[in-house]
Write a structure and sequence with these properties.
single chain, 393 residues, Serine Threonine Protein Phosphatase 5, Tetratricopeptide repeat, 20 helices, 2 strands
Length: 393
């Protein structure tokens, strides 16, 4: 007889497949598994192996944690990969004898890594990041000219993706090292967009240290040194820096600076379509989502601004999962402070559905869930289950 856990996994796969309007045949083909395997898993007669689960999740465009609940699987894979990521960058400036990987092949693999980051699929990043960091460093040290510049660009992007895992899963020292590697690689490119992107990501170190005023200074220096908004990419790079500066200014409780940078981000966003530029999502919708982040960061006296944005607008479904879930988490925080626990719990559940691992590792989501649990003003059974899942104990 199938176990309850196996049946639940099969039911989730079947539900997500139907939402995606895929047949079992189409899922089997996209996941490179047999139709018999898909049928057996969906009816609960068979539990998928890790490789099969990853293949099915990729075919369904979801993180495996959307299929298997609980934290042990993704968390375990991420934490197990941390030593390998650390080792891969331990001697980043020393050439090794590793055979370089062909640049086109490396570029394709790094492009997949970026898509996983935008989709909050951290287990896949953790599995591949050590190899790709080593490969990018090998190419960088063994090539010259345009190939070396391209390798440096790919190294910066890879370091950023690995940092997303380290930062969100609490490995702050490794995160800081990856940020510095990203900055070092960006300097090798002589590419002002890559350097602007590195400055954008560096803000994480200021968030971690709660050095918000210093972070604002660093971002404003990056804006001054950044590229002029003469193309879509340079406009997006500059706009993203203003958007980030608005958030850190708000956390520094500098409302005037936050308003100035948010206004400029809106202006620049109107000049480009919503898209991911050099791995950073930017456009009118992304800036709108950051309005909530800025309002929440400014504190309780600005809560109504966050609630007003949410009354008029919610993230479109084609926005990267990490961005969408971030909006709902920050909205939940505002709703808790505003005395709307039921709404806050609904927002947390939406965030979890969109990007479960991003939600589970987000400190504000955990804080909001813990507050709701203390208040006990939402559905007790489902709230307790959610709080246990997110670690709000």
């Amino acid at each position: 007889m199938p176990s309850p856990g196996t049946r639940e996994v099969g039911q989730r796969i079947a539900t997500i497949r139907r939402v995606r309007r895929m047949t079992q045949v189409e899922l089997a083909r996209a996941a490179f598994v047999s139709l018999a395997t898909v049928k057996a898993i969906e009816r609960g007669a068979r539990s998928p192996s890790d490789d099969t689960l990853d293949s099915i999740a990729a075919a369904l465009s979801v993180d495996p944690s959307r299929i298997i609940t609980g934290s042990t699987r993704t968390d375990g894979r991420v934490h197990a990969a941390i030593p390998a990521i650390s080792a891969a960058i331990s001697a980043y400036d020393i050439p090794t004898g590793t055979a370089p990987r062909p640049l086109p092949e490396l570029g394709a693999a790094v492009g997949q890594l970026v898509q996983w980051r935008l989709g909050a699929r951290y287990a896949q990043i953790a599995d591949q990041a050590p190899h790709l960091l080593g490969d990018a460093l090998a190419v960088l040290h063994q090539t010259t000219g345009a190939d070396r510049i391209r390798a440096a660009q790919l190294l910066a992007v890879t370091a950023r993706s690995a940092d997303a895992v380290a930062y969100k899963f609490g490995h702050q020292d490794l995160s800081a090292r990856l940020v510095e590697l990203m900055r070092w690689a960006a300097e090798q490119t002589d590419d002002r967009i890559a350097q602007a992107t590195a400055a954008y990501v560096r803000t994480e170190t200021f968030f971690t240290a709660r050095a918000h005023a210093q972070g604002l200074i660093a971002l404003e220096q990056a804006i001054d040194a950044g590229p002029s908004p003469l193309s879509r990419d340079t406009t997006a790079a500059r706009g993203a820096l203003h958007m980030r500066a608005a958030v850190i200014a708000a956390r520094a409780r500098d409302a005037d600076a936050a308003s100035l940078h948010l206004t400029e981000a809106h202006r620049l966003a109107e000049a480009v379509p919503e898209d991911a530029y050099d791995g950073t999502q930017f456009g009118p919708d992304t800036v709108r989502a950051h309005e909530v982040s800025v309002a929440v960061s400014l504190g309780q006296e600005h809560l109504q601004q966050a609630l007003d944005v949410a009354d008029e607008w919610t993230p479109p479904t084609d926005m990267p999962a990490e961005r969408q879930s971030g909006f709902w988490i920050e909205l939940a925080r505002a709703q808790v402070w505003a005395g709307h626990p039921g709404d806050a719990f609904e927002s947390l559940k939406v965030a979890r559905f969109i990007a479960p691992q991003h939600t589970r590792e987000h400190p504000w989501a955990r804080e909001a869930a813990a507050t709701l649990r203390r208040l006990k003003r939402a559905d007790a059974e489902s709230l307790t289950s959610f709080a246990d899942w997110i670690g709000a104990v």
